Amino acid sequence: QVQLVESGGGLVQPGGSLRLSCAASGSIFSIYTMGWYRQAPGKQRELVAAITRGGSTNYLDSVKGRFTISRDPAKNTVYLQMNSLKSDDTAVYYCNADHPSYSGLTFWGQGTQVTVSS
């Protein structure tokens, strides 16, 4: 069982920055693909950014150049640095750990609210 705990959400003005953190319960980065998803009211959950165990990253087109996913294995923590935030980025952000070899072996954090508003 993997436990994920997000932090760092909040209210920010358009153009501002936030850094989300996701602390994992163990040393899982060598196995799991780590991802950040988001879900806005009335919309489906979507993948924002992911980093594989090998360190490859991919991003949602609308956040490329603004968001950066990274990880610190020493702290068992994955981050999402969000810059130049827009109102469309408002959503609940979820951390995810997904096993690349076993379909369905995936874990979620509880989510953290990000609100971009003036």
Please describe the structure with a list of short key phrases separated by commas or semicolons.
single chain; 118 residues; mainly beta
Give an overview of the whole structure.
With 118 residues, the protein is an all-beta fold. The chain is built from no helices and eleven strands. The chain has strands at 4-7, 10-12, 18-24, 33-39, 46-51, 57-59, 67-72, 77-82, 91-98, 106-108, 112-116. Strands 2, 4, 5, 6, 9, 10 and 11 form a seven-stranded mixed beta sheet that branches. A four-stranded antiparallel beta sheet has the order 1-3-8-7, with no helix packed on it. It is globular. The N and C termini lie far apart (40 Å).
Give the helices and strands as they follow along the chain: EEEEEEEEEEE
> Count of helical segments?
0
How is the biggest beta sheet arranged? 7 strands, mixed
* Radius of gyration based on Cα positions: 13 Å
Query: How much β-strand is present in the residues?
Result: over 45%
User: Roughly what is the average pLDDT, rounded to an integer?
Assistant: 95
Counting copies of identical and different chains, the oligomeric state is: single chain
The overall strand count is: 11
Rough shape? Answer: globular
Helix content estimate? under 10%
Alpha-beta classification: mainly beta
Poorly predicted parts? none
Report the span from N to C terminus: 40 Å
